[in-house]
Specification:
Elements: H1 3-7, H2 13-27, E1 31-32, H3 35-40, E2 55-58, H4 62-75, E3 79-82, E4 99-102, E5 109-113, E6 118-121, H5 127-134, E7 139-140, H6 151-157, H7 164-167, H8 170-173, E8 174-180, E9 186-188, H9 202-206, E10 215-222, E11 224-225, E12 229-236, H10 240-252, E13 259-263, H11 265-275, E14 284-291, H12 293-309, E15 316-318, H13 321-332, H14 334-339, E16 346-353, H15 359-372, E17 379-382, E18 387-394, H16 399-418, H17 434-441, H18 444-455
Parallel strand pairs: 2-4, 3-4
Antiparallel strand pairs: 1-2, 5-6, 6-10, 7-11, 8-9, 8-10, 12-14, 12-15, 13-14, 13-17, 16-18, 17-18
Helix pairs in contact: 2-4, 10-12, 10-15, 15-16
The structure holds flavin-adenine dinucleotide.
């Protein structure tokens, strides 16, 4: 499937014109059609073309969402939910035009049930906003993609981050949802009980659906207690394979790391320059342990032994919050550190995930591939899950460079799939990974199409994402 095929979409001009008029009347100033607003609501994070919506509604309540969906359903016009727009695979592009629903004003924290370790939030709440709010409760929400994404967007891309090795991904941390479906009805997928065998699991169906099956209007999340003691540190290794082998053994031994991030030498150099770190330029692991004084000391000692076995170290760790914060801020800023390596160049951040036993082989082959093809492409990974990212720098004005990037991404995906991995551990499919989804799951994608057709018969919810219907 060519890129042209993936991003092609048919516009329903008459329907769009009708909807623009109705929404202007219904929402007044909260409905915007100016170029700069529309541009901000299209994809901006790769060379995929930005496909603007025709208008943007700033919703404030679920009733607003229902009104928009009902109008769009009647006129068969696409509706694309928008959190913060940080998704990386073209998920928010309006390939067939339509209306973007912006959730930035629907950002209330509705309930914190501290005794049940859960909370209910509106979709526009961002992960940093939620943790700021929770600070005095002794609880926190662990999922932390590098961007300050919205909870609605994170649920819809099944996002994860550095803590997933210990706390899971959005699939493990969403207990229940309310969502406006394609016919305008609002449903609740589950109650707040920790587990349930009540019928089909629509919560899990909507998590990761990229806004193609329903528009989320509230999300009930699991929370975690803030650990009594957090210890963290870094250690270098002679080769990337040694570092990855140390990760594999750490996981296989059951050392309960909270975070274990693999950073290759190119990425370490970029972090040093951008985040003013002073790390030795070599393959490095960033790690963190959660527990009490005794348990983090034990975990750190056990981890230190693994490190030594693979020729790494010394492993230096600290419980000093400032030092840790500096390190993890640098980790979260890797994308910007990569972009700063060659000013004016674009960075395509792509991710794959493999069974943990294949991690070392996959990253080593990928690093060799980067070198062989003369790419500047740092590697960084949520390695404890077998998930890693490559950020490839390129000049997006040169078609031959884009072709080189595409060929690399195709080889990376083939490699991960050959190891029984997946074409995306956390970024999702959007427009950019559709061909790889078919390579990964084959006929299974037909059943996804059938679910989509049953739940959204007129294909108005974020059409053209995850797969083509035709
Ligand atoms: C610097 C950087 C670092 C990143 N690091 C990570 C990382 O470590 N881990 C990771 O998983 N991702 C990462 N990402 C990708 C991105 O942050 C995630 O995909 C995130 O979940 C997107 O959230 P968002 O609020 O920006 O959603 P958007 O980009 O606005 O939307 C994403 C998708 O969700 C849908 N959507 C949004 N809101 C709703 C709703 N209310 N109802 C239904 N559908 C909705 C949209 O239609 C779209 O399909 C990173 C991105 C950047 C730019």
């Amino acid at each position: 499937m060519s890129l042209e095929d993936v991003v092609a979409g048919k516009r329903n001009e008459a329907g769009i014109a009708a909807v623009l008029g109705i929404l202007k009347q219904q929402f007044g100033e909260r409905f915007q059609t100016g170029d700069s607003i529309r541009e901000q609501h299209a994809h901006t994070t790769t060379y995929l073309p930005a496909q603007w919506p025709d208008g943007v509604v700033f919703v404030e309540t679920s009733d607003d969402v229902q009104s928009v969906v009902k109008v769009c359903a009647e006129h068969k016009v696409p509706v694309i939910a928008f959190g913060t727009g940080s998704s990386l695979e073209g998920q928010i592009n309006a390939a067939s035009g339509g209306i973007s629903i912006d959730f930035s004003r629907m950002n209330r924290i509705l309930e914190v049930n501290a005794e049940d370790l859960d909370c209910v939030v509106e979709p526009g709440v961002t992960r940093e906003q939620l943790n700021e709010y929770l600070r005095d409760t002794g609880l926190f929400f662990p999922i932390d993609p590098g961007a300050n994404a919205s909870i609605g967007g994170m649920a819809s891309t099944r996002a994860s981050g550095t803590n997933a090795v210990r706390y899971g991904t959005m699939k493990d941390n969403v207990l229940s949802l309310t969502a406006v479906m394609a016919d305008g009805r609002e449903i609740r997928t589950a109650r707040r009980a920790r587990k349930s065998s009540a019928g089909y699991d629509l919560t899990r169906l909507l998590v990761g659906a990229e806004g193609t099956l329903g528009i989320l209007t509230s999300i009930t999340l699991r929370l975690q207690g803030i650990p009594e003691v957090i210890a963290g540190g870094v250690c270098g290794f002679p080769t990337l394979k040694d570092a990855a082998d140390a990760v594999i053994m750490t996981i296989q031994l059951g050392i309960p790391v909270a975070r274990i991030e693999l950073v290759n030498a190119t990425q370490v150099a970029a972090c040093n320059a951008y985040s003013k770190l002073n790390l030795k330029v070599q393959p490095t692991l960033f790690v963190e342990f959660h527990g009490n004084e005794e348990s983090v000391a034990l975990q750190s000692r056990q981890f230190g032994e693994v490190v030594a076995e693979f020729g790494g170290g010394p492993f230096e760790w600290t419980v000093d919050p400032e030092e840790r914060a500096k390190l993890w801020k640098a980790r979260h800023n890797v994308y910007w550190a990569v972009k700063a390596m060659i000013p004016g160049y674009e960075a395509l951040a792509t991710d794959v995930c493999v069974p943990i036993s294949k991690l070392a082989e996959c990253v080593a082959l990928t690093e060799a591939d980067i070198e062989e093809h003369g790419l500047t492409a740092p590697i960084v990974g949520h390695a404890g899950d077998g998930n890693f990212h490559v950020s490839i720098l390129f000049d997006d004005k040169k078609p031959e460079e884009i072709a080189k990037v595409e060929a690399f991404v195709a080889r990376l995906n083939e490699r991960a799939l050959a190891m029984d991995g997946t074409c995306t551990g956390e970024h999702g499919i959007g427009q950019g990974k559709q061909a790889f989804l078919v390579a990964e799951l084959g006929d299974t994608v037909d059943f996804m199409r059938q679910i989509k057709a049953a739940m959204d018969p007129h294909n108005i919810l974020n059409p053209g994402k995850i797969f083509r219907l035709e």
